[in-house]
Amino acid sequence: MTTPVLGAHTFGFAWDCVAEEAIAQLADAGYRTVQLMATPPHFDPWRQDAARTRRIGALIERYGLSLLALDLASSDINLASPSPHVVDFAVASYEATIERAAELGARWICVGSGRRHALLAKANDRLMVSFREAFARIHDKATHAGIPIILENHPQGLLASAADIVRFLADEGYADMPVIYDVANAIAIGEDPVEGLRTLWPRLGIVHLSDSPKGQWRHDPIGSGEIDFAAIGAELKQRSYGGRIVLEILSERPLQDIGEGAAALQRQGLAFTRDS
């Protein structure tokens, strides 16, 4: 039977320690698959730093790690802004992050869908024009760099739901692009994560797991919210999902909560390996 690989995200460490320290903590705890949050003070994607690249590269080699993807913080950028200057900055930010991803040997660059207008729904069709053009520019850069895009659902984005993502990728001709499905992001918009997994199958490259109360946007420790991980695990098992599961938990003790979350998931029947 195909078994998914468990990994951990450095997002929970982003304000407390630099990327090298977070990666080392996760590696020492036995994780061999890592996703990196690219935001200062944790990791600055806008700044090329050969010495830092060597340090992180040495960690990856020493521990035999797989660096899945680099993520930009959604609070820093907006690919769907009505302002061309804002969009240009966002595209340039992704281009810099693609360069850092190539330097570090990451498998993917994670891209979100820009921010929809929360109060004026009729503006979103026009914002989609900005996003579509910006996304194409990023896709061109990523293709030339040899770092494929992986698209993530986001509750504030134009592509918030699984159906939105499927429709966009089909309409724009991105037939082979994989997707990160974040179950907490899905819960934030009232989407059933199990239905979302079914909708996105077989595009799933990474499944992000954290907990949240229904209707809220949180990335809390596993077991502290209302997400049905047993149902999610059953769906992944039924479909023989062999991709990556990444714990993306924001808390005051991210390493401990990631470890306890992994144990809680196993108790609920979600099987995985930590081999990269």
UniProtKB/TrEMBL annotation:
Task: Supply the name of the protein.
Answer: Xylose isomerase-like TIM barrel domain-containing protein
Native source species = Bradyrhizobium neotropicale
Name the Gene3D superfamilies for this protein: Divalent-metal-dependent TIM barrel enzymes (3.20.20.150)
Q: Which InterPro entries match?
A: IolE/XylAMocC-like, Xyl_isomerase-like_sf, Xyl_isomerase-like_TIM-brl
Domain Xylose isomerase-like TIM barrel, chain residue ranges per copy: 24-266
